[in-house]
Design a protein that fits this description.
This is Guanylate kinase. With 202 residues, this protein is of the alpha/beta class. The protein has one domain: P-loop containing nucleotide triphosphate hydrolases (Rossmann fold, 3-Layer(aba) Sandwich). The protein has seven helices and nine strands. The strands form two sheets. Strands 2-7-1-8-9 form a five-stranded parallel sheet, sandwiched between helices. A four-stranded mixed sheet has the order 4-3-6-5. It is globular, with a radius of gyration of 16 Å. The protein starts with 11 loop residues before the first strand and ends with a helix. The structure holds guanosine-5'-diphosphate and adenosine-5'-diphosphate. The site of guanosine-5'-diphosphate has 16 residues, from strand 5, strand 6 and helix 4.
Length: 202
């Protein structure tokens, strides 16, 4: 199977610490450019949060189901994060690519490494918080985590922030301090791909 598209738009990988603002930026982008982006819906074993929809935000599955998908070679990558399993299925990407949309993947740093071993050839963007202190505050204010899962995320964030500094891992690192500024930066790197998709629709 070939996920590297010869002619279609290049996929985009968004990574960065939990709480850095990936979902916020992504939702804004998908809203402003309706019919341009498609989200690669990952599998996860974590519990849905209030407001999250199965099949839209994630495919919420049991560990058994996740293992089955891994064993059947249905995933292009998978990782353990903060005590839960996450993975990207081939079909989640193919569903988006079949519609000629820019496929957006939201994965952790392990996912970035594993995707680099595939032929997907995405644009790699890291969203980073201004500081650990601000990250912790945002995660606390989001009110989605227990103290335990919060601490695990902060630990993972330290590792992510360290690894993301490495030269050549990301095409672009955006510090999400002021949301509007971060969003403009994100848009400006994607504008060429966005225009390609918009032109193809004309
Ligand atoms: N490797 C990998 N990471 C994923 C996948 N889906 C989500 N993640 C990452 O898992 C981490 C936790 O995601 P989530 O539980 O939704 O929490 P949130 O990022 O704080 O909203 C984040 O860093 C996501 O980028 C996936 O399919 N593969
Ligand atoms: N630039 C920003 N300034 C202040 N708060 C922000 C900013 N960006 C995101 N947030 C808030 O921080 C929290 C974490 O953002 P979120 O998009 O859920 O992160 P991620 O998807 O990377 O885990 C959310 O409550 C969000 O509203």
């Amino acid at each position: 199977m070939n996920l590297g598209q010869m002619s279609g738009p290049r996929p985009v990988v968004l990574s960065g610490p939990s709480g850095a603002g990936k979902s916020t930026l992504l939702k804004r982008l998908m809203k402003e450019y309706e019919g341009v982006f498609g989200f690669s819906v990952s599998h996860t074993t974590r519990n849905p949060r209030p407001g999250e929809e199965d099949g839209k935000d994630y495919h919420f599955v049991t560990r058994e189901k996740m293992q089955e998908a891994i064993d059947n070679n249905e995933l292009i990558e998978n990782a353990e994060f903060s005590g839960n399993m996450y993975g990207t299925s081939k079909s989640s990407i193919e569903d988006v690519q079949a519609q000629n949309l820019i496929c957006i993947l939201d994965v952790d740093i392990q996912g970035v490494r594993n995707i680099k071993e595939t032929d997907l050839n995405p644009i790699y963007i890291s969203i980073q918080p201004p500081s650990m202190e601000i990250l912790e505050q945002r995660l606390r204010d989001r009110k989605t985590e227990t103290e335990e899962s919060l601490q695990k995320r902060l630990e993972a964030a330290r590792i992510d922030m360290e690894l993301s500094k490495e030269e050549g891992v990301f095409d672009l690192v955006i510090i999400n301090d002021d949301l509007d500024e971060a969003y403009e930066k994100l848009k400006s790197v994607l504008i060429e791909e966005i225009q390609k998709v918009q032109d193809a629709k004309k």
